[in-house]
Fold this sequence. Notes:
Blueprint: H1 7-31, H2 44-64, H3 68-72, H4 79-111, H5 130-169, E1 177-188, E2 191-202, E3 208-212
Antiparallel strand pairs: 1-2, 2-3
Helix pairs in contact: 1-4, 1-5, 2-5, 4-5
Amino acid sequence: xxxxxxxxxxxxxxxxxxxxxxxxxxxxxxxxxxxxxxxxxxxxxxxxxxxxxxxxxxxxxxxxxxxxxxxxxxxxxxxxxxxxxxxxxxxxxxxxxxxxxxxxxxxxxxxxxxxxxxxxxxxxxxxxxxxxxxxxxxxxxxxxxxxxxxxxxxxxxxxxxxxxxxxxxxxxxxxxxxxxxxxxxxxxxxxxxxxxxxxxxxxxxxxxxxxxx
Length: 213
């Protein structure tokens, strides 16, 4: 009977989900039409505090309540995703807490030979030996700790996502700044090698910069 769950995979899933959220936010910002340049341009000292203010307000709201920073950034479609991601470690905590209680009760009754309470042992745990019950009890207790850590990580990633969106809200995207990613083929020592080439274009009169990976 297999009761434990791999938490390394769950942790990687949480990170991948929130990285996709940040990627979608950047892509959404890039697809917006360029903001018209006003006649009077504010200085950098005027704009930077405003950008920080938007990002810090979004971060504070998400720290108080997950999804509140996304609502402040007007990214309402992210709110169900945020709660869906946080629900994963919360569900795992409830699952492990339930089975920790069952295995602890069964092990205590078995180890003390409390025949009066044998009926309180869960039917799934009756075939297990005392040593198996002890090991399962310890595993579920450890997984409860990992679940709490997963909740904190998901909550923190929710804050990071809101902060990034807050910075992107005031970021001016124009056609003079672009990024192109494509495959790269090279032949060295008689062997063909394949990689990724990222080309950055800064302004109309500036050179391109290519980075090979």
